[in-house]
């Protein structure tokens, strides 16, 4: 678990830090276009945003961070962009995993390991997971070739394959067959780039998450934007279908 924060920036309440924050890192292409650069430059510039967000989350004691890096629908993009994204994610792991390991971050990957993901990328993912599996300060889940619908389909398939009867399929059974059954539901989901949609992210888990939409394009996102989203989260009243307390 995360270290208890001593004092938090920007007037954040240390007793109401979200346990799990999930983030749709969007707007890389527009960031690049604004500068007359190819879209791939925007993805590259997203690395600094990712690392600063992780550091900010560590700073305020967020124990679970889930980042949407590549969706099951992103294969629809031009072949060159997909190829770039695969290589970029691989090189990012190679360049950054030791540093994340030193910070006590456990790295995991949620998504389908299908034939479209190059083998060497899968290998880097496995190496990073193995290297960091003993860490508990933060669990950083990278959603890669991830789709919320695919995850639910995969869970139901696994139940059927195990011969579980209809009357034993309940919410607990489905949850326990998601990619990471120990992943808490996100308290806070942040989407950047001024888009107001979920785009097939964590559909099961975000049933009662607080949603915060940021206008920042992902490469411009920094820990101050994370703190602003957490402050917004702390101003919300969560009711879970019940009445105000
Ligand atoms: C998010 O940025 C990164 C991925 C989806 C891989 P985009 O590439 O979607 O950037 P925009 O939305 O086109 O600006
Ligand atoms: C969501 O962004 C996926 C990731 C951030 C990896 P997209 O850019 O793919 O979403 P849409 O197409 O705008 O809904
Ligand atoms: Mg986008």
Quick structural summary:
The protein has helices at 28-34, 39-60, 79-102, 119-132, 148-161, 171-175, 223-234; strands spanning 20-24, 64-71, 105-110, 138-146, 188-191, 210-213. It is an alpha/beta fold and 245 residues long. The chain has a six-stranded parallel sheet with strand order 3-4-2-1-5-6, sandwiched between helices.
Question: What would you say this structure looks like, in words?
Answer:
The structure is a single chain. β3 (105-110), α4 and β4 form a beta-alpha-beta unit. Helix content is 40%, strand content 15%. The longest helix is centred in the middle third of the chain and has 24 residues, at 79-102. The protein is globular, with a radius of gyration of 18 Å. The chain is an alpha/beta fold. It has a 6-stranded parallel sheet, sandwiched between helices. The protein has helices at residues 28-34, 39-60, 79-102, 119-132, 148-161, 171-175, 223-234, and strands at 20-24, 64-71, 105-110, 138-146, 188-191, 210-213. α2 (39-60) crosses α7. The chain has a single domain (16-234), classed as 3-Layer(aba) Sandwich (Undecaprenyl pyrophosphate synthetase), CATH 3.40.1180.10. It binds 3-methylbut-3-enyl trihydrogen diphosphate (2 copies) and magnesium ion. One 3-methylbut-3-enyl trihydrogen diphosphate is lined by residues 25-30, 70, 74, 85, 193, 218.
